[in-house]
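Inverse folding, one chain.
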């Protein structure tokens, strides 16, 4: 009866449906039984969360996000998003973050909200949005909760949206289709070195988070005259090279070490979409050419990122993806054949081209009225289809949080990475969900 009451007004509205955005189409097509295709954003509050109030806050918030509060539906030619008639029920924390969401679950609701003690987490199926859209959803949900629970008047700024406002058309657009260039770029790339490990036989996901002082590591990045993302990417490349030297000592048999780095396109193309709008670059070095010092790797990564991250190059990358979608043959192809074609393309041009992903959401800022209630934010990127390790980064309130998620037992990557940062003088507090 409570569910019927909660459905009430929502079922009276006509349900909205939307095509998947250009980046989202690959996720349902290339899915695998053990590939989650999720990411998680969470906030740790000062007090234990009142789940009943949070459920009310979620009921209000989902109406503002019709492209996120959805399920994935299957059409004849494409998958599509269908708006939910009611918010999902808040779940309890599982044994580990981002427990598998089957495609059957995705067809019912493609995101979940999890509360445990002081922590609020939202786990998104990646076809709905990227980290930048997800953090706006989380901030807005938090603002609604704090308003209901404590009567706090939180302004609509710094990613907090007005829950009474109707969704803007530009928030729901597929910005890829508006910003592709006249010429597409080639997708041809060399295959990268792949990290190995012993898969957890029960699907357990291992999480290790390093907590650093933001000012300390930013100061270090400035010494090398590079951005924080370039510095962390270079540190990752250096660390994986050390691993490859141990596993494949013969240089001729080694492969390039490259890191997949998502680029938020919103500022570059002036977009406010809440759907996916990020592209990937894969900076790295080829150890077969000789030994690299860390200084050499930092310089190389910095220049590679500088070359790749500009409007013209990115528009050409968008054109390559959009061009495939607009192909007449692909348009008229039945969905089951599209799935085979897209999965094949994903295997050829996707994750084979990188050794690991680093996704940096940057500095998370909230309205001043929220700061005293929120201790911490975390970002966890799900493991990839073929890469069994992933790294995600954000900073909040003077702290940098670097999280590693892996489906293998060995913690070699994060150990090598954090030990290298410590060798540069960085102080790190390491947390783990090791069982």
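Residues assigned per position:
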């Amino acid at each position: 009866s409570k569910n019927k009451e909660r459905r009430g007004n929502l079922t009276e509205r006509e349900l909205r449906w939307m095509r998947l955005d250009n980046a989202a189409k690959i996720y349902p097509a290339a899915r695998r039984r053990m590939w989650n295709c999720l990411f998680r954003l969470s906030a740790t509050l000062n007090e234990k969360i009142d789940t009943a109030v949070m459920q009310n806050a979620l009921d209000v918030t989902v109406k503002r996000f019709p492209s996120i509060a959805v399920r994935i539906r299957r059409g004849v030619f494409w998958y599509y998003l269908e708006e939910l008639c009611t918010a999902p029920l808040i779940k309890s924390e599982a044994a580990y973050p981002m427990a598998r969401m089957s495609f059957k679950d995705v067809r019912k609701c493609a995101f979940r909200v999890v509360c445990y003690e002081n922590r609020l987490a939202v786990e998104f199926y990646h076809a709905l949005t990227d980290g930048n859209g997800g953090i706006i959803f989380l901030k807005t949900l938090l603002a609604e909760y704090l308003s209901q629970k404590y009567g706090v008047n939180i302004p609509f700024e710094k990613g907090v949206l007005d829950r009474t406002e109707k969704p803007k058309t530009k928030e729901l657009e597929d910005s890829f289709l508006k910003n592709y260039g006249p010429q597409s770029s080639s997708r041809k790339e060399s295959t990268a070195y792949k990290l190995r490990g012993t898969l957890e036989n029960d699907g357990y996901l291992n999480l290790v988070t390093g907590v650093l002082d933001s000012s300390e590591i930013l100061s270090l990045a400035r010494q090398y005259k590079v951005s924080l993302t370039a510095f962390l990417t270079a540190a990752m490349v250096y660390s994986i090279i050390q691993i490859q030297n141990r596993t494949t000592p013969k240089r001729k048999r080694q492969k390039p070490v490259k890191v997949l780095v998502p680029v938020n396109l919103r500022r570059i193309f002036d977009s406010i979409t809440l759907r996916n709008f990020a592209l990937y670059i894969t900076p790295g070095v080829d150890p077969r050419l000789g030994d690299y010092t860390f200084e050499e790797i930092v310089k190389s990564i910095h220049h590679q990122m500088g070359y790749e991250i500009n409007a013209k190059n990115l528009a050409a990358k968008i054109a390559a993806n959009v061009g495939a979608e607009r192909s007449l043959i692909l348009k008229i192809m039945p969905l089951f054949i599209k799935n085979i074609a897209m999965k094949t393309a994903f295997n050829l041009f996707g994750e084979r081209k990188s050794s690991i992903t680093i996704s940096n959401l940057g500095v998370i800022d909230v309205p001043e009225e929220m700061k005293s209630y929120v201790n911490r934010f975390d970002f966890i990127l799900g493991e990839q289809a073929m890469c069994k390790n992933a790294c995600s980064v954000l900073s909040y309130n003077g702290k940098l949080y670097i999280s590693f998620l892996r489906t293998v037992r060995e913690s070699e990557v994060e150990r090598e990475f954090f030990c290298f940062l410590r060798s540069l003088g960085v102080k790190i507090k390491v947390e783990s969900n090791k069982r």
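The first strand starts at residue 17 and ends at 19. The two ends are 39 Å apart (CA to CA).
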